[in-house]
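Q: What residues go here?
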């Protein structure tokens, strides 16, 4: 039953993550509820989501929605930032991490649910100079660090950053964000692999379910709708957040 519930959570997380980001808001608490230590929850989430993101990225890349020029300027910085963030989080004890996750979840939820305005945007075809080689790397390093340190809401942060600050279209922002998600996930995953904080065997069915969720969700994104995902995320996270407060705070 435990593996079945974790697998279902992994599918939902992949589906949500591929559309609007925030899948870790489902997956991390789910692993915590199964009775595993916070470090194992964070490490396993990175293991599962790293591979799952490839399915969503494949769909977006085939549809030519990824802006590779932006990727080239910032992907290394996202990877390094995620590795540094993961190393920092591993300096805390399990109880402290549990409390940090409890209080950071509302932040991640807020970042996930912030409206992505559907205003007209450029495609970054003319992106160059200071914006490309300074602000893009700084933005990507900062978001990569957050992803390694905590994770939930990273996809939404990337989409918002690309759309509102760099004026990229929403679909293109979501597609390009998947490359950075993958890079930052790899950076954080390396740190968790080295420290031994991953549930490898239990993570296999979760990984397969996450791939399926990312595949279905990315297809839905290309057809254009995320309202149902946001509503589902709010309902699910309300229950998870209340449970985490009872476990780590009360």
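A:
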């Amino acid at each position: 039953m435990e593996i079945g519930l974790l697998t279902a959570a992994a599918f939902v997380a992949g589906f949500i993550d591929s559309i609007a980001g925030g899948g870790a808001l489902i997956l991390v608490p789910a692993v915590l509820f199964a009775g595993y230590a916070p470090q194992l929850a964070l490490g396993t989430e990175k293991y599962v989501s790293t591979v799952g993101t490839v399915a969503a990225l494949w769909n977006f890349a085939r549809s030519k929605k990824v802006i590779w020029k932006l990727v080239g300027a910032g992907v290394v910085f996202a990877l390094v930032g995620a590795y540094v963030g993961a190393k920092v989080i591993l300096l805390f004890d399990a109880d402290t991490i549990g409390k940090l996750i409890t209080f950071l979840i509302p932040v991640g939820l807020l970042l996930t649910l912030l409206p992505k305005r559907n205003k007209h945007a450029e495609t970054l075809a003319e992106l160059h100079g200071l914006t490309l080689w300074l602000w893009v790397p700084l933005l990507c390093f900062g978001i990569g660090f957050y992803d390694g340190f905590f994770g939930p809401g990273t996809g939404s942060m990337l989409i918002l950053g690309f759309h509102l600050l760099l004026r990229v279209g929403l679909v293109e922002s979501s597609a390009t964000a998947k490359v950075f998600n993958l890079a930052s996930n790899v950076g954080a995953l390396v740190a968790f692999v080295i420290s031994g904080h991953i549930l490898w065997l239990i993570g296999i069915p979760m990984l397969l379910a996450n791939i399926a969720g990312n595949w279905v969700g990315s297809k839905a994104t290309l057809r254009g709708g995320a309202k149902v995902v946001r509503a589902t995320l709010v309902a699910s996270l309300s229950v998870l957040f209340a449970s985490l407060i009872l476990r780590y705070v009360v």
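A: Context that may help when evaluating the design: Residues 206 and 237 are 19 Å apart (CA to CA). The chain has one domain: 2-248.
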